């Protein structure tokens, strides 16, 4: 360790700490803007400036804490420097805070309050000309609100390994965008939305479809149903001030009912259905010499990535649609028939922690009933916006249940939202199917946890089954390159596009940089899902009574012709 003084207080910090980290040990949070730990450590924005004993100003996010150092974080010189930095940013910023979707939880706005920026008109003048990019299916870039912190560039390049955005031009004309000023929709962006998740301002936002949902609900001719992804219940509460890692499943169901949805269903139902189909597909490929490893296909960012970057591996992708899409296909066939509703009158809405789901609903071969399986996909953030707009007092709501039958899901389904969860759910069903015996306990703990790549091997009915799990596309690339080179060999792989899985999806509540840098957000949210799993009396997809009935009365067996028509899809190379 090393010993230093921060604002006159003695601090002992681990060797290798930055001043920012050492200050945290003294319970002082130095403001940051561009800094994202291990992702964007460029010391560029200079908001985190501190003063050394010799009067020198240094950027604390990258400057090493040293033995005997004396650091001051709040001198007039420091505060003045931070304010000037902020004023420079604000002088080239579209300050339409009243209408900005990030107002109230914008990191720039928060700093402006903290640092006492008091004359907004002072910053009037020329700002770098920019156009709003709406070309992508899932998001909007408004560079008039960009502060060039480069967090989006770093997460796209360093975490996802994609790199479709970067800085164009120089000086006052600098802007973030794609090469040759192409629209994002023209690039090989996979719609994961991790750039939105890290953006400190309103420069990057999902395409908002909340008005379409309100309009559908208000239309008396429409039967509007909603499904909620596993991970949404683990994130939504943050939008209402609850601590990260709060389970709001019951309040969420209550809120959706009060918003006016005709039926409040759950993607967990169709996650169980996905397991039935995917476990069957896995066993079939193993027993009949099919293409292995089988790779999961429920994460649309990952599927698009596979198509763009590993096109020779699309045959490894499971032909199963994602749970979102399976839900939609079943809602407009089985459910419509059962309820006596013309599927044309159904508006199928999904609430997802994901922005790529907005892209997925428009993919080819996702329209089993001659119409889109899902009509509108909104993010966790958009749902929160709707609840607030409707004046629903979320925190005061009682806990309510989902509606039957498409609201019934098992513990296996809810863990889909955390990396490793799909694999664990599939193993619970595949192992029992292959052995014909009940598992002594359904937990496959080797595939849990937020590590980027996980591996395990299981002896199943005399066969060694090797599996791997990767989350985040940088990790996916690493894993797949090993598979391609022959360095690693597996039977079954789970890949999720976002690091940590859907709990950390691009549509989840945005947490500011200082929280992201200090909190295991994905771990806390994942714990919610594992706790729900443990508490559920039914923890295996094949034991879901609503799924059993669906097969018994409608689909026949997993992999049947009808199941194939409704629940499976195709990929482009
Ligand atoms: Fe996911 Fe999935 S787990 S992809 O992460 O397979 O988005 O939560 O809904 O479809 O079930 C997302 C989450 C979600 C699907 C399921």
Report on this structure:
This protein has 573 residues and is α/β, with parallel strands linked by helices. The protein has helices at residues 19-25, 76-90, 107-114, 151-159, 194-198, 210-218, 249-259, 267-287, 300-309, 323-339, 356-360, 380-389, 411-414, 421-435, 473-485, 513-516, 521-535, 545-555, 561-567; strands at 2-6, 9-13, 49-52, 57-59, 70-72, 132-133, 139-142, 166-168, 175-177, 204-206, 223-228, 263-266, 294-295, 346-352, 376-379, 453-460, 463-471, 492-496. A 5-stranded mixed beta sheet has the order 2-1-5-3-4, sandwiched between helices. The protein has a 4-stranded parallel beta sheet with strand order 12-11-14-15, with helices on both faces. A 4-stranded mixed beta sheet has the order 13-18-17-16. A hairpin with a 6-residue loop joins strand 8 and strand 9. Helix 8 crosses helix 10 and helix 8 packs across helix 14 (421-435). The longest helix has 21 residues, at 267-287. The mean pLDDT is 96. The protein binds 2 iron/2 sulfur/5 carbonyl/2 water inorganic cluster. 2 iron/2 sulfur/5 carbonyl/2 water inorganic cluster binds at residues 229-231, 267, 271, 298-299, 322-324, 352-354, 357, 416-417, 501-502, 505. Residues 229-231, 267, 271, 298-299, 322-324, 352-354, 357, 416-417, 501-502, 505 line the site of 2 iron/2 sulfur/5 carbonyl/2 water inorganic cluster (HC1).
Overall residue-averaged pLDDT value: 96
Strand content: 5-15%
Question: Order of strands side by side in the largest beta sheet?
Answer: 2-1-5-3-4
* Distinct small-molecule ligands in the complex: 2 iron/2 sulfur/5 carbonyl/2 water inorganic cluster
Q: What spatial form do the alpha-carbon principal axes imply?
A: globular
Rg, Å, rounded: 25 Å
Task: Please report the total strand number as a whole number.
Answer: 18
